[in-house]
């Protein structure tokens, strides 16, 4: 084994510091500073490319460097890429269970039959879908009720009453679009306030920022910053609508907010989040940014006000860029 020399050790040190810096920025400045927002919604796995050079170099010539490089690989595969260990639950749930499924239909291109099978196989009680375009329908059990408003729809095996949707302007669209569709679902255990959400995406700002010649053009960051402000306002208004509910609350849909996002942590992190009950990455969104694969966890089921999330799964591929998410919410007995 050779003693570590200056250049390999320096490169390894710089890489470890840079990776830890990226980790800290993700949890401190995502959706607050546009370069970190680009990392938040971009191909984070690219931060591991230096390991393709440094690890073989360390194995062949400087094996002591495998220790810091192993630490760097763990940071990358763990918190930077979003790996989590399921949070422990306190006690055994004693209230009535409601099983919720949410799925973004990718402007109606989803395999409706495959999604209908997921609903049946998981014995789902309530379904929320987003980007519902076209006339195709889910094949649901007899007796289900449903209501569609724009591109958001809610379906339930229990009696359903839908309220007025929150509509907001979005980048790339001339007219306001449905952002939150509220409903009251009358379950056997009592009424529940249900909110199907589709919060704005940063897609247009990210695409505008990327440049064919410069790769990233900081001069075009203004649209991403404007979209970030609009996305925060949408979360603020959506959360205000949720907070007006006096019933147990379930919020399900495409939040377009990874857990590291400042917007998510400010407006939604105090609710019972079903996704933290899963060990793994929990990715629900699979897309590419200029040909580079991107995987994110942005679809969620939240609960509060006397309701608590107790179980969570990411469903199979149904020919959408989003995977369906399935969660159990328990209505905790009063008193």
From TrEMBL:
Sample GO molecular function, one term: exonuclease activity
Keywords attached to this entry: Endonuclease, Exonuclease, Hydrolase, Membrane, Nuclease, Transmembrane, Transmembrane helix
Transmembrane feature ranges: 7-27, 33-57, 64-83
Record domain Endonuclease/exonuclease/phosphatase: where: 101-322
Entry-linked Pfam families: Exo_endo_phos (PF03372)
InterPro entries the UniProt entry points to: Endo/exonu/phosph_ase_sf, Endo/exonuclease/phosphatase
The protein, known as: Endonuclease/exonuclease/phosphatase
């Amino acid at each position: 084994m050779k003693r570590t020399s200056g250049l390999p050790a320096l490169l390894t040190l710089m890489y470890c510091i840079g990776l830890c810096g990226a980790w800290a920025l993700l949890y401190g400045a995502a959706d607050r500073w546009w370069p970190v927002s680009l990392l938040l919604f971009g191909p984070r796995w690219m931060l591991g490319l230096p390991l393709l050079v440094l690890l073989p170099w360390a194995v062949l010539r400087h094996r002591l460097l495998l220790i810091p490089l192993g630490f760097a690989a763990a940071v990358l595969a763990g918190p930077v890429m979003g790996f989590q260990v399921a949070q422990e639950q306190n006690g055994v749930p004693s209230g009535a269970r409601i099983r919720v499924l949410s799925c973004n239909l990718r402007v109606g291109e989803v395999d409706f039959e495959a999604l209908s099978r997921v609903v049946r196989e998981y014995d789902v009680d309530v379904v929320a879908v987003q980007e519902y375009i076209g006339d195709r329908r889910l094949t649901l059990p007899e007796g289900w009720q449903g209501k569609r408003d724009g591109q958001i729809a809610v379906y339930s095996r229990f009696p359903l009453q839908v309220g007025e949707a929150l509509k907001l302007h979005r980048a790339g669209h001339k007219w306001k679009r449905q952002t939150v569709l509220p409903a009251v679902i009358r379950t056997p255990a009592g009424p529940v306030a249900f909110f199907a959400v589709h919060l704005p995406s940063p897609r247009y700002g990210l695409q505008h920022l990327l440049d064919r010649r410069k790769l990233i053009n900081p001069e075009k960051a203004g649209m991403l910053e404007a979209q970030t402000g609009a996305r925060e306002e949408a979360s603020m208004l959506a959360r205000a609508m949720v907070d007006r509910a006096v019933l147990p609350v379930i919020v399900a849909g495409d939040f377009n907010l990874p857990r590291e996002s400042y917007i998510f942590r400010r407006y939604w992190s105090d609710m019972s989040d079903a996704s933290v009950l899963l060990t793994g990455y929990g990715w629900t969104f699979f897309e590419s940014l200029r040909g580079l694969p991107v995987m994110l966890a942005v679809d969620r089921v939240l609960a509060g006000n006397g309701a608590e999330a107790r179980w969570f799964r990411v469903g199979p591929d149904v020919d959408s860029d989003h995977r369906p998410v399935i969660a159990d919410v328990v209505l905790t007995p009063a008193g």
